[in-house]
């Protein structure tokens, strides 16, 4: 099954049940006997947490770091693990679980407790990674200690402001699990069909967190290509270029030796180059996907 559109090939990440099913199917392609119970338990914990059904927590309020983002990261992580397996760098069962549970929990630090009265959770942008580690240690304490430890390292490596060396790995499998999920976090979001629109949501998260130093939404749009150049250097150098293994996954699963993630990112960036040539007052008219612009204008008025 080949696709002209890379976005179509990446699938629907809004539907969590569909994503969970695809993650399971992908794992069973390369690890047929793998027990999906722990991953399923992590999906259902996150459902309860993000929906506001976990005692002591509010529902997830951040607009960019939302359930769709988590879904795109865990699905991309499963595909990464398949590609690594095909490249002779496969993971054992516990490290498969750690990579995927870490992907599911990597942004749970944006959740606010009932005691945290104001804000959306975006105020925790700088600390959300370690908040996610604390959440995981508390709510997944029944995992075997080594698996829990690896899962927390997977989460820690998604702090992209730091060089990967800040996390000390005990073995190569642990490092691969973390590098796969960290890679998926970066390319999953930038390959989203609505990435350019969702940058508007990201701007308001940065504003609330008082980080980023962007003068306005247009400043962030104009600097996104440069951000991708930095991200690409991190992917290729710091994270060992693991994203290339996705081509193997798509070759086997969809019959096309193509990296649909990188193709989707390139399409987004090509379109962005056209958008930023437009005068600022008309620019947002070109960002029509997902009803994002309408939602932002409703929240914030004129941009």
What does this structure look like?
This protein is mainly α and 303 residues long. It has a single domain, classed as Catalytic domain of cyclic nucleotide phosphodiesterase 4b2b (Orthogonal Bundle). 61% of the residues lie in helices and 0% in strands. Helix 4 crosses helix 8 and helix 5 packs parallel to helix 8. It is globular, with a radius of gyration of 19 Å. 43% of the residues are buried. The model has no long low-confidence stretch (mean pLDDT 94).
The level 1 CATH classification is: Mainly Alpha
What's the number of structural domains? 1
Number of helices: 14
| Helix vs. strand class | mainly alpha
Helix content: 55-70%
What is the global morphology?
A: globular
**What's the CATH architecture?**
Orthogonal Bundle
Order of SSEs: HHHHHHHHHHHHHH
The radius of gyration computed from the alpha-carbon positions, rounded to a whole number of angstroms, is: 19 Å
- N- to C-terminal separation? 42 Å
Largest sheet: none
Instruction: Provide the low-confidence segments as ranges.
Output: none
Q: What is the CATH third-level topology name?
A: Catalytic domain of cyclic nucleotide phosphodiesterase 4b2b
């Amino acid at each position: 099954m080949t696709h002209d559109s890379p976005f179509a090939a990446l699938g629907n990440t809004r539907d969590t049940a569909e994503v969970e099913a695809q993650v399971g199917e992908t794992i069973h392609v390369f690890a047929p006997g793998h027990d999906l119970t722990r991953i399923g338990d992590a999906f259902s914990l996150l459902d309860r947490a993000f929906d506001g059904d976990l005692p002591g927590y509010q529902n997830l309020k951040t607009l960019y770091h939302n359930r769709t983002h988590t879904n795109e990261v865990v699905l991309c992580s499963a595909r990464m693990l398949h590609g690594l397996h095909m490249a002779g760098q496969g993971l054992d069962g516990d490290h498969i679980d750690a990579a995927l549970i870490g992907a599911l929990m990597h942004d749970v630090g944006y959740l606010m407790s009932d005691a945290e009265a104001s804000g959306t959770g975006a105020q925790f942008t700088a600390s959300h990674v370690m908040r996610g580690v604390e959440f995981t240690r508390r709510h997944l304490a029944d995992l075997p200690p080594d698996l829990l430890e690896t899962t927390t390292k997977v989460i820690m490596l998604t702090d992209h402001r730091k060089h990967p060396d800040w996390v000390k790995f005990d073995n190569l499998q642990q490092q691969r699990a973390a590098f796969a999920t960290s890679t998926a976090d970066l390319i999953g979001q930038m390959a989203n069909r609505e990435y350019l629109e969702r940058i508007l949501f990201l701007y308001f998260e940065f504003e609330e967190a008082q980080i980023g130093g962007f003068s306005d939404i247009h400043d962030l749009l104009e600097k996104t290509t440069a951000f991708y150049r930095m991200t690409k250097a991190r992917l290729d150098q710091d994270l060992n270029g693991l994203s290339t293994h996705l081509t193997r996954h798509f070759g086997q699963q969809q019959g096309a030796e193509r990296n649909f993630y990188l193709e989707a990112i390139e399409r987004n960036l090509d379109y962005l180059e056209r958008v930023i040539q437009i005068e600022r007052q008309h620019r947002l008219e070109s960002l029509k996907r997902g009803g994002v612009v309408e939602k932002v204008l409703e929240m914030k008025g004129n941009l």
